[in-house]
Amino acid sequence: MGDVLACLRGWHPALALAEVKALLPDSKATSTGVDRWWRFEGEQASHRQDVLEMSSGLQCFLIDGVVASTEGLLQSGWLEQMKAYLHAHPVSGTVAVRAWKQGGKIPNWSLSSLAGQLGGMLGDMGRSIDLNDPDHVLALIGDGPTASLACGWMEGDGQAAFSSGQRRAGERPFFKPVSLDPRLARLAVNLASGPKNRGPVVDPMTGTGGFLIEASLSGRACIGLDIHSEMVQGASMNLAWAHDDAVPSNSSVIRGDATRLEDLLPEAWVGKVAGFVLDPPYGRNSHGSIEAEQLLEAAFISARKVACIDAGFVLILPVHPMTPHPMASLPLDLDINLLNGSWTDLLAMVERCGWTPLSVHAERVHRSLSRLILHARCAPQD
Predict the structure, then answer these.
(1) Rounded to an integer, what distance in angstroms lies between the CA atom of residue 219 and that of residue 225?
(2) First to last CA, the chain
(3) I want to staple 56 with a disulfide (CB 3.0 to 4.6 A). Which of 157, 187, 226, 321 is the partner?
(4) Could you tell me the pTM of the whole model?
């Protein structure tokens, strides 16, 4: 069986890789040596199409994509490789070549010139060129930092940015400054929940409903809870706005306590929830006298009671400024300076509540604040 080359977006490749792995749990991922390009083997085309439609961090797939370092490589030699590739992977219908770069130019290599030569090669092979609406696109990508090229028949449209501009947090009818960017909200939902058919998603403290918007738009069943009536009403408004007032029947916002999920969720959901996404409302006392650490622990315990066997949990927390690490996850034993509480105590609490921490990532918010994304999985019960 052949493989596909997953081409990740430039925003946070390490998070994007974790997201694609979660969405394709039965596939084998292998590094190409370029952080944004990973080979995936063992998934059907229909599964990949779901990932392309849902993912925040994936740009496209290349079918059996060719990856080459330009160091010491002659352009004529690379073109011969691509000629062999095109003969080995014929397509029917019209074709076009599309080229783009990431992270800067490759010295002494012109992508536009190479794209033109590839187009000429396709013409010589009898392929019909259609630059406006081709049936198939041959993608040519240059990675400046590693001076590498990737090329192959593309699955997906290769858009450079997750198309969320029309639903930015500031555009919603109900807005709070702490609302997450849609691209991170979508990624968190996918990272926590895995494939779409695995089960529903729950946001125990939904706030303005950003997670719910992304979960519902990607076709997942989802419920958001909040203890505050104002947030429930506001998140409901935002959900309706995102769906042009046609909210799916399997998506809703309810007033309720994050520590009592078993009593509040539909009976059919108990033991079936695939993913939990939580961006706790630190900075406001959301549950009366319950301290933030106690509230978080109670929420993890409650989630464990309604989770399916392999459920995921993504927790997002504010931390003191950190050096960005977009190309790799952070060591779990790193001394991370949380704004509230101890990182060591937090990890111990997560495990005590029946969850296994898998990975942690950092994202810069602004000069004086970073954001931590912790991914955990439901641990087997004794």
Answers:
(1) 19
(2) 38
(3) 187
(4) 0.94
